[in-house]
Design brief:
single chain; 308 residues; alpha/beta; eight-stranded mixed beta sheet; 10 helices; globular
């Protein structure tokens, strides 16, 4: 392996250990450990424990870059400043977080496509996660779409230079035209409009991925989505930062798959609308569930009205 890995960690030692074992097995030559600081004094010990898991676990020839913060920057600012540093040093990198568990073949998949598309103007992102691998019916290893899944990914400095945490240009966009181009369902257009509006010029954003989606789309950047699910999230539950759930979900998607080599490349470097439509349709909440959620919201609103 020749590509650097950026590893974002915080205060989850157990999931960090699991992801770290996969990184160790891949033996990247350079590792950028991006670690946020504690929110409270009680978290300081856990932050130190998480960092030491990696520091003490390097048993191969690896250049470690410690991108540590003594204070808590928050998810958005920590990731952004950390990756800014990475791409000042590297032309390309693979990015994992402390809850994104990759299959071993994820690293080779990323590395081969980082090399293949390094000079491309229209490919910005390489996904590790594919929540719906069943939509791939042929032997093609991946397709190009606007879907930029963030659970295990890779990119280039040429792409990251367009990233803007404040999304300053969004306020000048024709939002309807822009979102119709990139969002193939009405529900996705509505949700993206809401999130883009929230994050535009937000001095204290809680996440950083919507800004990356905008950077890709603004620059007509497509994403590689693999035919197999190469990365699953192992951190969904009550203690998660963003992927909160009342109950612990051990892994989502449920199965991590391996990629087969040599890769079978698509015949075109154009956006595959057909695959994208199928993927987005599967993301849609079923109508019955939508109806139940709507009824539930009405009941909750009525109960709140009665209380007041």
């Amino acid at each position: 392996m020749k590509t650097a890995v950026a590893f974002l960690v915080y205060i989850r030692p157990e999931s960090t250990k699991r992801v770290w074992e996969r990184i160790k097995a891949a033996k990247p030559p350079r590792l950028y450990l991006i670690a946020d600081g504690p929110k409270t004094p009680d978290q300081a010990k856990t932050c130190k424990e998480v960092r030491s898991i990696i520091e003490s676990g390097i048993d191969w020839d690896c250049e470690l870059h410690k991108i540590y913060s003594d204070k808590n920057l928050g998810c958005a600012h920590r990731a952004t400043t950390g990756l800014d540093y990475v791409f000042e040093k590297e032309e390309q990198a693979i990015i994992l977080e402390d809850d994104t568990l990759p299959d071993p073949t994820f690293f080779e998949f990323c590395e081969q496509l980082l090399d293949k598309y390094k000079d491309s103007k229209n490919v910005f992102h390489i996904c590790g996660t594919n929540s719906y691998p069943e939509i791939f019916k042929d032997d093609i290893s991946y397709h190009l779409t606007s879907i930029s899944n963030m659970w295990g990914w890779a990119t280039w400095s040429r792409s990251w230079k367009h990233y803007d945490l404040s999304m300053n240009n969004w306020k000048n966009e024709d939002s309807t035209k822009f979102l119709r181009k990139w969002c193939l369902t009405e529900s996705l257009r509505k949700s993206m409009l809401k999130m883009f509006d929230i994050h535009c010029n937000n001095a204290d954003p809680w996440t950083w991925d919507y800004q990356w989606f905008y950077a890709c789309w603004k620059n007509n950047g497509l994403s590689v989505i693999p035919s197999k699910n190469l990365v699953s999230n192992i951190g969904i539950g009550p203690d998660a930062t963003h992927t909160k759930s009342k109950t612990k979900i051990s892994m989502f998607p449920k199965q991590i798959q391996k990629m087969y080599f040599p890769l079978v490349h698509p015949n075109s470097d154009m956006r595959n609308i057909s695959i994208e439509k199928k993927y987005r349709q599967r993301e849609e909440i079923p109508k019955v569930r939508r109806l139940k959620n709507y009824i539930k919201s009405l009941i909750n609103s009525f109960n709140q009205f009665i209380k007041n």
